[in-house]
Amino acid sequence: xxxxxxxxxxxxxxxxxxxxxxxxxxxxxxxxxxxxxxxxxxxxxxxxxxxxxxxxxxxxxxxxxxxxxxxxxxxxxxxxxxxxxxxxxxxxxxxxxxxxxxxxxxxxxxxxxxxxxxxxxxxxxxxxxxxxxxxxxxxxxxxxxxxxxxxxxxxxxxxxxxxxxxxxxxxxxxxxxxxxxxxxxxxxxxxxxxxxxxxxxxxxxxxxxxxxxxxxxxxxx
Length: 221
Hints:
By secondary structure, the chain is of the alpha/beta class.
C-alpha cells in the first residue's frame, strides 16, 4: 500500500472500535491497494509454511473434502488448500479483498466469497473438514474475539479440524496494542467449546527483525 502510515492505521482501527464497528475499516486496506495485491501491507504473498507442513503430514483421505479460509486476504492460504485437493471456500468481509483474489487467480478452483464471520451463510454450519484461521482474532476487540472463536469453531464438521495461526504475547503485555496478539490463555479457550481437542500447539518466533512471537495450534472436533 502506497505511503502506508502505521500510526494512522492504528488511529483508524481505534476509531471504528469506539463506534462498535470492529470490521468496518477492513475494506479500506484492500481498496487502497488500487488493484495491486502486493501493496496490501500485511500480506505475506505466500502460504503459511506451518499450514503447508500440516497438510503434508496429515493427508485427509476423504472424497469431496472441504476447507474454509477465514479472512482470506489475497488468497495464498486458500490456494494452498486447493492444491492439496480440498474444495475451498475462502471468504473475507472486504469486497476489495475478494476482487483482488479473483483477479490474482483467474483460473482458481477456490470459491472466493464476500461474507461476514458473524453472519455467515447458514449452510456453512458444521460443513468443513478443515477450517483455517490466520490473524483474524487479533484485529478484533473485546467480546468480538470470543464471538469470532465461537463462530469459527461452529464451521467445523464432526471429526474436522481448525488450524489457528496468530501473533502471541505474554499475559499482561501489550494490552493496548493494535493488532492485539493472543495470550496462551486466550488461544486455549478453543479447547473449551464445541468439543474441540487440542492435537498440537507450537509457540515460535518468525524471521522478522525484530522477531515476532506466534502461536500455531491445531484442534479437532
